[in-house]
Design brief:
By secondary structure, the chain is α/β, with parallel strands linked by helices. It has a single domain (3-258), classed as Class I glutamine amidotransferase (GATase) domain (Rossmann fold), CATH 3.40.50.880. The chain contains eight helices and 15 strands. The protein has helices spanning 3-6, 30-40, 57-62, 92-107, 117-125, 151-154, 168-173, 232-251; strands at residues 7-8, 10-14, 16-20, 23-27, 43-47, 66-68, 112-115, 130-131, 159-163, 177-180, 187-188, 195-200, 206-211, 217-220, 257-258. The strands form four sheets. The chain has a nine-stranded mixed sheet with strand order 5-2-6-7-14-13-12-9-10, sandwiched between helices. Strand 12 (195-200) and strand 13 (206-211) form a beta hairpin. Helix 2 crosses helix 8.
């Protein structure tokens, strides 16, 4: 294998910030890290979630792509003009960092893969709104996570989605319909005007989006990282993200990581 084959572009993964007991932590689930290393072929680094970061440009200078993972918290409604919900788990530090990174990455045409909470952040970052409770808005119950189920059962494929004809995801799937997992209470309310729909559930809920006029900026509501090793479509999505990051790295002055 030549040197070019072993170069892994550096990809930033935005952390969640939360407490475990008295300990204030920044973290990301291993399933995202594993998919990035084993399938996308990139070198992930964690980006902390803190409003102490007034400028995210140093991170954008250092990476060749960004992954925005899912999380237990929700985007603060004030970010999109929604009413406050006292019962909602928030992570304002992540909101601060993630939205700034998304907007900065878009200005550089840097690859973005946004999953679950990240998908929702992508819509908010460019002017869209969220439905804080899709079930009270009349969407189907199959999107819901059942916390009583074992973890593996919660991430099983649950419902089909229709991929937009001629879209990036349809090209990756080689089909017009795929089946995905579903574990969320929030969803897209109004779609940001710079975004296009890439997939929708049978009940009409938006399941995937992309940033128009951008080489690779895709958000998905489901969790492809949990099946990236075993499912062809999930694998294709991470492989395409990795390829986009390698192309972007080739245009940057910063070196990729050599194995």
């Amino acid at each position: 294998m030549n040197t070019q084959d072993t170069r892994r572009p550096i990809v930033g993964v935005v952390c969640d910030r939360f407490y475990v007991g008295e300990h204030d932590l920044h973290s990301a689930k291993h399933s995202y890290i594993d998919a990035l290393i084993s399938v996308a072929g990139v070198a992930p680094v964690l980006i902390p979630a803190t409003d102490q970061l007034a400028d995210v440009a140093p991170y954008l200078d250092a990476v060749s792509g960004l992954l925005f993972p899912g999380g237990a918290s929700n985007v603060e409604p004030a970010r999109y003009g929604g009413p406050a919900r006292p019962d909602m788990l928030l992570d304002r530090d992540r909101d601060h960092v993630a939205i700034a990174l998304m907007q900065g990455a878009a200005s550089r045409d840097m690859p973005i893969l946004a999953i679950c909470r990240g998908f929702q952040e992508l819509n908010v970052a460019f002017g869209g709104t969220l439905s804080p409770d899709i079930y009270t808005d009349g969407y189907a119950d199959y999107h819901r996570e059942d916390p009583r189920e074992p973890l593996e059962a919660r991430y099983r494929f649950k419902h089909p989605i229709a991929l937009t004809e001629g879209g990036k995801l349809e090209a990756l799937a080689g089909a017009g319909t795929v089946t995905v997992n579903s574990l969320h209470m929030q969803g897209v309310g109004s779609l940001a005007s710079p975004l296009a729909v890439e997939a929708a559930a049978p009940d009409g809920l938006v399941e995937a989006i992309r940033l128009r006029r951008h080489a690779f900026a895709i958000g998905v509501q489901w969790h492809p990282e949990t099946s990236a090793r075993t499912d062809g479509f999930s694998r294709a999505l991470f492989e395409a993200f990795g390829a986009a990051c390698r192309r972007h790295a080739a245009m940057q002055s910063q070196p990729a990581y050599n194995e």
